[in-house]
Amino acid sequence: MSTKPRGSTSVERLQAENDFLRRGGIAEEVGKSIRVLLICAAAVAITYLLGHAIESLSGKETDANIIVSLLGKIEISVVLSWVVGAAGVVYGRSQMKLRKATIERLHGRIKSLEEGIDPGRTTSKLTKSGDTNPGDT
After folding, report:
1. 35-75: per-residue pLDDT in tens?
2. What's the alpha-carbon Rg for the chain, to the nearest Å?
3. CA distance 128 to 134
4. How far apart are CA 91 and CA 85, in angstroms?
5. Where are the domains of the chain?
């Protein structure tokens, strides 16, 4: 018979699990730190390389002057309004798709609940996605 008190194996098991989780947490934090360092190093490298590219073009007549002059003529407010408008359209379409998918997913459940309340209920003849029936137009 063992001299260990009853339940000591579960205590040992909990301590081992705790140690394992602690080591996993340390490894996760080290991984996050390495990721941040890599992102910062990439930002520094990009800045350094862009600086050298601009330095090599300085004082020379190139096609870059044409591009810079074209970009200089574009008003930032016009570009910003186009970006915001396009983002609004993309957001609206994604919300429409999400709404239709949700309606279609819940259609059967809602129909069965409504029929449970009123078995003689008539249908609105909407499609499963909630659109107007094509025959109604």
Report:
1. 999 999 999 999 999 888 877 777 666 666 666 666 666 67
2. 32
3. 12
4. 10
5. 9-60, 71-125
Complete DSSP assignment for 81-114:
HHHHHHHHHHHHHHHHHHHHHHHHHHHHHHHHHH
Backbone angles phi, psi at 132, to 5 degrees: -65, 140
Tell me how long the chain is: 137
At residue 1, the pLDDT reads: 46
What CA–CA distance (Å, rounded) separates 37 from 31? Answer: 10
Which structure tokens are listed for 72?
Answer: 């200089």
3-state secondary structure of 12: helix
CA dihedral (82, 87, 88, 89) positive or negative:
positive
